[in-house]
């Protein structure tokens, strides 16, 4: 059994999608990042960077004590190696997947995340920041679109690279992007949306979302140093 400490952000969706694809038994433990659950001592013990997602594997390979992990990319790699799925065993195939996994971690995620922050959550509009991150998100979409011009998935076969990137494309409208401008990316995006594991992951995860605007306190907790009191 794996404990998944989760909230329905793109990084949270990445790991939930992988668990759904592999069929590993897991228990979902919501971490309400607007309420400040990520600052609880029990969560910090397994995720010292106070960010979701994190996992605890109660049956790691070789036995022994439960193994905890934070950082979504590291978790995807761990689960791929644990199951022997969605990461090629051969040198060149593995290298292809890992390059694109780290591309998402170092590029697509941070840039799209800043895009979303300045477009949606920032208390004041900063035109320079909005323009910069919308344009950089478009550039990264273009990189992915060109990559997908001659292959079905990012590294050929469906892999953790696709699972890492797809949740960061889902908010394309709020990030100021039009998928019609990226036909290869659009085709890939739709194909993953049709996968049963993706449908389960997103429908279940989105059930946590609030149907109201973020409050000032939630915004302060999410983008500040922590909750006012616990």
TrEMBL record:
A Pfam cross-reference name: GST_N
EC class: oxidoreductase
Parts forming coiled coils: none
Cited InterPro entries: Glutathione-S-Trfase_C-like (IPR010987), Glutathione-S-Trfase_C_sf (IPR036282), Glutathione_S-Trfase (IPR040079), Glutathione_S-Trfase_N (IPR004045), GST_C (IPR004046), Thioredoxin-like_sf (IPR036249)
Biased composition (Basic and acidic residues): 206-221
EC number, as in UniProt: 1.8.4.-
Annotated region described as Disordered, given as residue ranges: 203-230
An example Gene Ontology molecular-function term: oxidoreductase activity
Keywords attached to this entry: Oxidoreductase
Family: Belongs to the GST superfamily.
Name of this chain's protein: Disulfide-bond oxidoreductase YfcG
Organism: Novilysobacter luteus
Gene from which this protein is expressed: yfcG_2
């Amino acid at each position: 059994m794996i404990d998944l400490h989760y909230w329905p952000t793109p990084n949270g969706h990445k790991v939930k999608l992988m668990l759904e694809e592999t069929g590993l038994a897991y228990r979902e433990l919501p971490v309400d990042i607007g309420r400040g659950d990520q600052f609880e001592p029990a969560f910090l013990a397994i995720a010292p960077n106070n960010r979701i997602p994190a996992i605890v594997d109660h049956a790691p390979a070789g036995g022994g004590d439960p193994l905890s992990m934070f950082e979504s990319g590291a978790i995807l790699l761990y689960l791929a190696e644990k199951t022997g799925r969605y990461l090629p065993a051969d040198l060149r195939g593995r290298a292809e997947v890992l390059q694109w996994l780290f591309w998402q971690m170092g590029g697509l995620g941070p840039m799209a995340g800043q895009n979303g922050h300045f477009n949606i959550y920032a208390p004041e509009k900063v035109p320079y920041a909005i323009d910069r991150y919308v344009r950089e998100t478009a550039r990264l979409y273009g990189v992915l679109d060109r990559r997908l011009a001659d292959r079905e998935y990012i590294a050929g076969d469906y892999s953790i690279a696709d699972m890492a990137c797809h949740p960061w494309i889902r908010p394309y409208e709020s990030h100021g992007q039009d998928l019609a401008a990226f036909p290869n990316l659009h085709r890939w995006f739709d194909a993953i949306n049709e996968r049963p594991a993706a449908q389960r992951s997103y429908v279940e995860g989105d059930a946590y979302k609030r149907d109201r605007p973020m409050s000032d306190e939630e915004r302060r907790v999410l983008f500040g140093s922590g909750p006012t009191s616990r």
